[in-house]
Amino acid sequence: MKLFDVYPLYNVTPEKGEGVYVYDEKGQKYLDLYGGHAVISIGHAHPTYVERITEQVNKLGFYSNAIQNPLQVELAEKLGRLSNCEEYNLFLCNSGAEANENALKLASFHTNKKRVIAFKNAFHGRTSAAVAATDNGAINAPINNQHSVTTFLPFNQLHSLDYELAFGDVCAVIIEPIQGVGGLDEPTTEFLQGVQQLCKKYNVVLILDEIQSGYGRSGKFFAFQHHDIEPDIITVAKGMGNGFPIGGVLIHPRFEAKYGMLGTTFGGNHLACAAALAVLEVIENEKLIDNVNEISAYFIEKAKKIKSLQKLKGRGLMLGMEFEQNVSEIRKELIYEKKIFTGGSSNKNLLRILPPLTIGKHHIDTFLNSLSDVLKNQNL
User: Fold this and answer.
1) 14-46+287-377: what fold?
2) What is the pLDDT of residues 95-104, one digit of tens each?
3) Is the Cβ–Cβ distance between 233 and 206 less than 8 Å?
4) For the chain, where do the domains classified as CATH 3.90.1150.10 start and end?
5) For residue 205, which of 187, 231, 224 has the smallest C-alpha distance?
6) CB–CB of 42/49 below 8 Å?
7) What is the 3-state secondary structure (H, E, C) of 13-62?
8) Global pTM?
9) Distance CA 290, CA 316 (A)
């Protein structure tokens, strides 16, 4: 049997990770400024993370949600405290797409409506309703078009949103406070606050997709917290487990839970909870959100000196460097010649920077010096 060939692959085979580095099968070291799509939040093979998972798997790796699992309660309490979202309730699942799927389903249950408002260049996942709320026709199969009740609007146009919500058939507005795959675009504070007001006016559920921007990556625990709003539902995943599959839906207490309305086999299993608890412990004990803000300011100050850089986008350690030309050759030279991982996006001129939150200033220096060499080599 062969693998189903759906991923364009770089010719690199990581075998080991440590901190902000990964090592291939030949022992070659690479600086990881992408973290596998912002998944690696506390660094590769962090000792606390390894210890917690090892200890848990030696006791019990899995049992279903038909029994008591105190680790879920501990995770909910710790996540609520560190994120300042203690009044919310937590539903645990396995991925970002699944988190958004359940968020949309919950909104539809709550309002008894089905139309969704999403935004241009949005990416919310690849499962049924989540992909229908994703602004990419290439990954929406005909079967997904049964969810043809998604309307895509531009950021920062409240009059367009008001017009659509006035029809009275919308269950949810789902929005990324910083777009990931879409290219690091952000709505303004004025717009997000206006969205919240309109959702309240029309009894529509406001879902903040923090799959990539959450867990401190923006410089606050959640990126929406830069804008002084209170979502009805918050979805999380990528950095939540530092590589162990886990996702979550934070649900405002105004939503009434009923047995069977949401469910999952593997979500919130013992190993996943151990991984997620380790991540929160490290974020708190090592003051990683403070580090995000310090390193981000340093990065931005240094990056602005690159003459060919057109625009610097994003917040914290969720950053995009936009150039006049396609960055694919820049990324190739960075990975093959400079041994540095970076990311791309639907904006082909944007280099995406999503390192572990443990990164230091000397790593930023290494990257920016290497990037300057690459730009010079390519006459940019």
Assistant:
1) Aspartate Aminotransferase, domain 1 (3.90.1150)
2) 999 999 999 9
3) yes
4) 14-46+287-377
5) 231
6) yes
7) CEEEEEECEEEECCCCEEEECCHHHHCCCCCECCHHHHHHHHHHHCCCCC
8) 0.96
9) 10
**DSSP character at residue 261:** S
How far is Cα 10 from Cα 220, in angstroms, rounded to an integer?
A: 33
Token pair listed for 339: 């041994």
Please give the structure tokens belonging to residue 372: 């300057």
Burial of 1 (0-12, 13-18, 19+ CB in 10 A): exposed
- Which among 267, 289, 278, 183 is positioned nearest to 240, based on CA atoms? 278
Q: Other CB atoms closer than 10 Å to residue 128's CB: what's the count?
A: 16
CB-based burial of residue 127 (10 Å sphere; 0-12 exposed, 13-18 middle, 19+ buried)?
middle
CA 361 and chain centroid, separation: 23
Percentage of the chain exceeding pLDDT 70: 99
- Tens of pLDDT, residue by residue over 108-141, are 999 999 999 999 999 999 999 999 999 998 999 8
Name the residue with tokens 């990770």: 17
In CATH terms, 48-285 corresponds, of 3.40.50.150, 3.90.550.10, 1.20.1050.10, 3.40.640.10, to 3.40.640.10
Q: CATH 3.40.640.10 in the chain, residues?
A: 48-285
Q: How many CA atoms lie within 13 A of 44 on its CB side?
A: 19
Does pLDDT of 333 surpass 70? yes
